[in-house]
Amino acid sequence: MKSLHPADPAIAVLLPCYNEEQTIGAVVRGFREALPQATIYVYDNNSTDLTALQARAGGAIVIREPRQGKGNVVRRMFADVEADIYVMADGDGTYDPQDAPQLINTLLTERVDMVVGTRRGVTDDAGRAGHAFGNRIFNTLYQFLFGRDFTDIFSGYRVFSRRYVKSFPAVSGGFEIETEMSVHASALRIPVCEMPLDYGRRPEGSESKLSTFRDGAKILWMFAMLMKETRPARFFGALAILSLAASAGFAAPVLYEYFATGYVAKVPTWILSIGLLMLSMIMMVAGLILDSVARGRAEQKRIHYLSHAPAQTIAKAAGEAEKHRSIRAA
């Protein structure tokens, strides 16, 4: 696909990297060819190989982020880089840079603030069947907890508007950052869309940084934390129901014995049952109170999000400016 017109908004390509010397040079050159007007940033996350050198040789601006983890890198990138449209991809060569203009065009024509390049062939990634199974489980769980906005919450190929980037809190530290990005959009009802794209294999000698069980546990923990922060009524309501059910389970034999004999022989069990009942009531009240707090925080995030102009408005202004320059030149 042809690159965008020079009058289009300022575009930044963001590439978080850790030990990707075999692929980052080709990735940078691919984005320079696909988006010649874009500025390409490679954030080196403590690589021990020649990642930074290869990226700089390819024409990218290289910046080092000492805090380990993709989430820390994304937080730094979003804070540092000023642009109108942001393209984020991985440096491992699994995403095709030639798809970037199409993703940007979709962002502008569909009038959305994030486009996610969903991965065709993700199950072929170096034969990592565990990753593919985890993808299906976590995407299903996400849709149950947060809504059906996304079918591939772990895709690293995304295009954002400026107002999405500058309103995104980015509290995650690792690979769970993509989950946080998706929840941010779902919680604020930010317009998004998906585009199916081919997903490539890593070259020989290049190793994935993902750990099926360690990163899976982190993502599950992030699900719980984001549920607590964005939907506390449901989170604490579920805990309250579990506590109430446990209380009823412990109380049932004690009450049966009391009504049958008039005595309570299992006093500790009865005390435990009452304690669980009180805990259930406390969690229910906490959920209701925190739900009001969460709504207030969401409103503040929404106001900050709306304080930035949409990408379509910026693109239109750039086009008008180019038109006026052409008229004056004539």
Automatic annotation (TrEMBL):
Q: Which organism is it from?
A: Neoaquamicrobium sediminum
Q: What is the lineage of its organism?
A: Bacteria, Pseudomonadati, Pseudomonadota, Alphaproteobacteria, Hyphomicrobiales
EC number(s) per UniProt?
2.4.-.-
Report keywords, A-Z. Glycosyltransferase, Membrane, Transferase, Transmembrane, Transmembrane helix
Membrane as a keyword of this entry, yes or no, is yes
Q: What is this protein called?
A: Glycosyltransferase
SUPFAM superfamilies recorded: Nucleotide-diphospho-sugar transferases
Q: What class of enzyme is it?
A: transferase
- Pfam family of the protein (one): Glycos_transf_2
Domain named Glycosyltransferase 2-like: which ranges?
13-166
GO molecular function terms listed in the Swiss-Prot or TrEMBL record: glycosyltransferase activity
Bilayer-spanning residue ranges: 235-256, 268-290
